[in-house]
Amino acid sequence: MTDSSDEYMTDRSDVTAFEHMLNYVSEEAQRLRVSTVVVRCLQMAVDELAQADGQSQKAWPENPSLH
């Protein structure tokens, strides 16, 4: 049986890894000129994960540039 603190650490590192992947995907989507709506949704997902993980940093600008 696993300790609940071990499960929490695994869950937290999974969330952090997923947050990093979403950051990368949103940056690449922006670079590839994917629709602004898609990029914005990815960036909001990163922000939500950061808040859920206890890190309340904004991962995207207030006024993203349109293309």
Could you describe the 3D structure shown?
The chain is an all-alpha fold. The protein has one domain. 67% of the residues lie in helices and 0% in strands. It contains 2 helices and no strands. Helix 1 (4-31) runs antiparallel to helix 2. The longest helix has 28 residues, at 4-31. The chain is elongated and about 40 Å long. 10% of the residues are buried.
Q: Give the beta-strand count.
A: 0
Q: Ends: how far apart?
A: 52 Å
> What overall form do the CA principal axes indicate?
elongated
The percent range for strand residues is under 5%
List unreliable stretches of 5+ residues: none
Rounded to an integer in angstroms, the radius of gyration calculated over CA atoms is: 14 Å
Secondary-structure element order, as H and E?
Answer: HH
Structural class: mainly alpha
How many structural domains?
Answer: 1
The main β sheet shows up as:
none
> How helix-rich are the residues, as a percent range?
55-70%
Q: Averaging pLDDT over every residue, what do you get?
A: 77
Number of DSSP helical runs: 2
